[in-house]
Amino acid sequence: MAILDYQRHHWMTALGWSDEDVPDVLVLEGTWWRERATKSRLALLTDVTETAFPEIYVGRLGPARVAYCCAYGAARAVEVVHVLAQIGTPLIVQIGTCGALQPGLATGMVAVPTKAIARDGVSETYGAGELVDLDVSWSDWAVKSLKTRGLTITQGLHLTWTTLFAQSDALCAQWTAEGIHTVDMETAAVAAVATRFGAKTVAMMATWDILGESKTFLDPVSPAAAQALTAANSATWEVALELARAVAEERHLAIVDGCRGAA
After folding, report:
1. 136-148 vs 223-262: helix crossing angle, rounded to 10
2. Which of helix, strand or coil describes residue 114?
3. How far apart, in whole angstroms, are the C-alpha atoms of residue 151 and residue 136?
């Protein structure tokens, strides 16, 4: 049987999980610094274990069950979403960094798009069109929480592209002319797979490369910009954990209401 034909019970058996083990939230992060990011993120969780599939971790934050994976690029990210969304994880959160294209965007803002253009080469295989929707309600929730931390938010049109390095000045200028605000390598594909399996998606990405000015991650940034980037990266994880708590509470109330209805 090909993987796309697998059903929920195949993955549950492979993971060795029961229904109570299904996470409330899966948080994905795309970064080169996998070991450092994983250590830092998991430090805020308890009872952390690695699943039967390598580098996918699950821990607890109070009543919430949180899955985390450092997945770089669409091809890797969709594998994790495919499994956890299909078994019933209701919310997928994409964090990490992105490039900024439009004038006025600066390093250390947070992009929270509700629409993403899918040019990643993966989304279409999951039935997505060129434009993929993210969840508006949970995205608005995230924006409010980020703003309480003093973050500047951008919610313009987002693009998911194939690779970080195949981005010329001419191509970035074309994207800017199209009205695209930010670009990454995971978000649209993550949302496409989540949608296929009935999960919702939120993306919160710290802006780093100022591509509209031909500045990449290799260009130095000012101390103030570096501090803003660090703050944005920390805030996106903190808000992802708040989302996990909110989803866990929502699921608990749904169970309680279901029990009352059956009584």
Report:
1. 130
2. coil
3. 19
Instruction: Return the residue matching tokens 């990405």.
Output: 205
Spatial separation of the C-alpha atoms in residues 148 and 190, rounded to whole Å: 27
Contact criterion met (CB below 8 Å) for 72 and 32: yes
For residues 83 and 141, give the distance between their C-alpha atoms in angstroms, rounded to a whole number: 26
β-strands 158-160, 115-118: how paired?
Answer: parallel
Counting Cα atoms < 13 Å in the Cβ hemisphere of 35 gives 0
**Per-residue pLDDT tens listing for the chain (263 residues):** 899 889 999 999 999 999 999 999 999 999 999 999 999 999 999 999 999 999 999 999 999 999 999 999 999 999 999 999 999 999 999 999 999 999 999 999 999 999 999 999 999 999 999 999 999 999 999 999 999 999 999 999 999 999 999 999 999 999 999 999 999 999 999 999 999 999 999 999 999 999 988 888 888 889 999 999 999 999 999 999 999 999 999 876 555 345 445 54
Is the torsion defined by CA of 17, 6, 188, 246 positive or negative? negative
